[in-house]
Amino acid sequence: MVTLAAMRKIEMVDIRSQYLRLQPDIDSAIAGVLDTAAFIKGPAVKAFREELANYLGVAHVISCANGTDALQVALMSLNLKPGDEVITTNFTFISTVEVLVLLGLKPVLVDVDPLTFNIDPEQIAEAISPITKAIIPVHLFGQPADMRRIREIADNHSLYIIEDNAQSLGAKFTGQDRMPKFAGTIGNIGTTSFFPTKPLACYGDGGALITDDPYLAETMEIIINHGAKVKYHHDLIGVNSRLDTIQAAILRVNLKNFDDFIARRRKVAAYYDERLVSNPRIQTPIASETGTHVYHQYTIQLDPAIRDEVQNKLKVKGIPSIIYYPIPLSLQKAFTFAGYQKGDFPVSERLCKSVLSLPIHTEMDVEQMDYICTNLLNIIDHE
Fold it and tell me: Which of 61, 211, 186, 169 is CA-nearest to residue 135?
């Protein structure tokens, strides 16, 4: 095994090394924006939107400032009323419910599948009430939720679907027609984030909304521009949420390399699988039979009794890891008004005590992966 001192520093996500590999193209793209000084709504923004729409096979991509704004704008475009219920997962980042509360909507949380970490469709069906208006499935850690069943439930109850696809852009879901579709393109609206750690990333904040519905596309376009279709003529109450031109230029370069990024992440995941799957004390990620995985995270499950100690010992060895997520939404202090109690969501609560995400990114080499796996297995064997 190679020693830590003899290898590159292990990062959860090595953005700098990826930049250095693509530096000529990235620098040229940024210089092109600086040369024109078109920092807001420059030509790279329009080009990126068109290129991403073409990649995903959708009619409309509306860029915005970040993934949280994308969720908020999507909800605003549906003309929901205060008090309307929206069903979503209890095991996700808080932005998914944050925007619901800010808009006066009522989040209704449901539990998740213990192996895929994605929202449980049957619990969605059980949670529907007369004032339910929408479902927000979150495609967590890099793979789609069961969109066939979710689509079926939504259609049966005339509900909107907003796909929170901040972590799984590039993943595909195969439905009943056996035709694969990209995550984020199956519901009424898909939202995504280009935060620097995401599979398709920029070097700051960025986000996008995805839809085939021309009315929703136009409405969202107006909302992100202060509610104005024509300058100084405000038809709706909107927001100011723009993807700046430098970030769009960077995203255009990264989109050209996106399939390679995904392949590199899958290669790391395959190495981890091969080394770790046979250890009975490690539950490696389960890939859904109906979807592909882009491995935004490689998240294992450990016995809660040893998880934190394993993480601490990995840190001593120079191996970073992160717990996504340490507290379910139902038990967050900010969400106490909803009245959920400990024990209401047993799967989510157990996952918060057992999950551990290992380093995964496009620039990992075999020496790093071997060092991580060897040390993890040694630590587990001595716990």
Answer: 186
- Tokens describing residue 252: 């255009």
Is 341 domain-assigned? yes
Q: Give the span between the Cα atoms of 173 and 292, in whole angstroms.
A: 7
**Sequential DSSP letters for 223-277:** HTBTTEEETTEE-S---B----HHHHHHHHHHHHTHHHHHHHHHHHHHHHHHHHT
Q: How far apart are CA 180 and CA 175, in angstroms?
A: 7
| Under 8 Å between Cβ of 157 and 134 | no
Model confidence at 383, in pLDDT bands (50, 70, 90)? confident
Would you tell me how many other CB atoms lie within 10 Å of the CB of residue 334?
Answer: 11
Whole-number Å distance between alpha carbons of 357 and 351: 12
pTM (2 decimals)?
Answer: 0.97
pLDDT tens, residue by residue, 238-289: 999 999 999 999 999 999 999 999 999 999 999 999 999 999 999 999 988 8
Residue 77, Cβ neighbours under 10 Å: how many? 27
* Residues 244 and 324 both lie in one domain: no
Euclidean distance between CA atoms 171 and 146, whole angstroms:
13
Range of the domain at 262: 258-381
Q: Is residue 1 part of a domain?
A: no
Q: Under DSSP, is residue 16 helix (H, G, I), strand (E, B) or coil?
A: helix
